[in-house]
Amino acid sequence: xxxxxxxxxxxxxxxxxxxxxxxxxxxxxxxxxxxxxxxxxxxxxxxxxxxxxxxxxxxxxxxxxxxxxxxxxxxxxxxxxxxxxxxxxxxxxxxxxxxxxxxxxxxxxxxxxxxxxxxxxxxxxxxxxxxxxxxxxxxxx
Length: 141
Known about the structure:
The chain has six helices and three strands. By secondary structure, the protein is mainly alpha-helical. It has a single domain, classed as DnaA protein, C-terminal DNA-binding domain (Chromosomal Replication Initiator Protein Dnaa, Chain: A).
């Protein structure tokens, strides 16, 4: 995933409240799909050699036809003023203002008390890399 693609995914996460791990993950939850498809649409709009449907698909761990369908759905939604149009507008504002939005954090349970032992730090592995405990995405080499 390129730096610009990461910025777009982080901005979509900040605009929608959907964690980066869910946007890049395999879930097809109702709240995740518009965010993921908006990110794919914005990456395709961004242009450049790394934003073909195939390259975007690799960033999301999906086929290029899935990316194509997400872009088609986003275009249809924008035409009728649906939820993706609001997401895309907000993300474009975030990217234009050059904010460095922090990705939305999934709800975390309070840490369990430990008795003298060091707490275990867990990394969540995604198809694009892994999530650090602070929620930042580390891209696999």
